[in-house]
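Why does residue order matter? Because the sequence determines the fold. Keep that principle in mind as you read this record.
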Amino acid sequence: QVQLVESGGDLVQPGGSLRLSCAASGFSMENYVIGWLRQAPGKEREGVACISPSGGTTYGADSVKGRFTISRDNAKNTVYLQMNSLKLEDTAVYYCAADLSFGSGCLLGHYNGMDTWGKGTLVTVSS
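Structure:
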């Protein structure tokens, strides 16, 4: 069974850091782009970051550039999102997603091709 499971969400103060993990089962991540998206209360889901199969190319939304870093360990079948300098507006449910059709649109900021999703992990930034 193809599955993505996110972990690492927590309550953190503004300026703090968190690292989210996305673990895959039922398939090998190494052949696919993986993205992180988030949905804040009352807002539409937005793409945050994307990483190529090799990890050599990444894309980040303007709102997180310089603060968030996406990385992957294909040997562990896991993708990470390191989040630093967290802001109140980063509060959201964070989802990881894969494009198992071998697309790469998320590397250009287009996430419509993502077809496999995790259930999300909640990040709350609050003082």
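The first strand starts at residue 3 and ends at 7.
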